[in-house]
């Protein structure tokens, strides 16, 4: 059984539109924060080390999302990450945002690529990072390009 990386985020005023629901671009900021948390907390390669001494980055190459239900001001969302595909320099993750009631709010398939920030060209993931990512691979998920739902 594969591991799932989880944490929570509080929907703040800054995330919401006039109706008090998350304005969709703010989900992408929360998504990026979550990926950054995963790298720091689970993969032991925080963005400051990656972008600094590591001379690397993990930009998004492909992103598919499905907005299922609105998230409201003050709501606590649980974010869940599983790896769908793990290559030498790229990886695809499924991320889900779930409300306290258990209802799905947002589902994302995102492919990221490890790049050399000097050349802006793909480079292999460091082997310890790749091994740490392997714990999160869930072979039962759909192939990249769709949400598998």
TrEMBL record:
Molecular function terms, GO-annotated: 1,4-dihydroxy-2-naphthoyl-CoA thioesterase activity
Keywords linked to the UniProt accession: Hydrolase
Listed EC numbers: 3.1.2.28
Pfam families membership: 4HBT_2 (PF13279)
InterPro entries: 4-hydroxybenzoyl-CoA_TE (IPR050563), HotDog_dom_sf (IPR029069)
Coiled-coil positions: none
Family: Belongs to the 4-hydroxybenzoyl-CoA thioesterase family.
Protein name: 1,4-dihydroxy-2-naphthoyl-CoA hydrolase
Species the sequence originates in: Cupriavidus numazuensis
Lineage, opening ranks: Bacteria, Pseudomonadati, Pseudomonadota, Betaproteobacteria, Burkholderiales
């Amino acid at each position: 059984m594969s591991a799932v990386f989880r944490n929570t985020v509080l929907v703040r005023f800054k995330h919401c539109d006039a109706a008090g629901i998350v304005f969709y671009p703010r989900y992408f900021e929360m998504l990026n924060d979550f990926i950054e948390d995963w790298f720091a907390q689970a993969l032991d390669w925080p963005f400051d080390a990656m972008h600094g001494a590591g001379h690397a980055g993990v930009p998004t190459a492909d992103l598919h999302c499905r907005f299922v239900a609105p998230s409201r001001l003050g709501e606590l969302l649980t974010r869940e990450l599983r790896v769908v595909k793990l290559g030498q320099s790229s990886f695809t993750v499924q991320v889900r945002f779930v409300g306290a009631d258990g209802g799905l709010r947002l589902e994302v398939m995102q492919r990221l690529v490890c790049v050399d920030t000097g050349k802006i060209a793909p480079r292999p993931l460091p082997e310890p990072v790749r091994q740490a990512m392997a714990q999160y691979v869930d072979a039962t998920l759909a192939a990249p390009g769709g949400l598998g739902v």
